[in-house]
Input
Amino acid sequence: MTGLRRAPGIGIQEQNGAVYVAPLPDGPIVVLDGVAGVIWHAACAGDRATIAERVAEATDAAADEIRDDVDAFVADLVARGLLVYDP
Output
């Protein structure tokens, strides 16, 4: 199983259904609300290969219909340095 985890030096705060993620101490703060927050949690909670399935289950969407968008969003979080691969 390979997964993702919060990158070192990243702070996270959850409030009112939104996930606030930022490199500490200088930011910037990224606000992940709605499906973005669901994707964040799914990305940090298990095998990388099944993120779309977990998001689909949480949102009543079809995994095949959202997979490309979920994968692109996760890749963006990695590119921003907010998530790292955890082999």
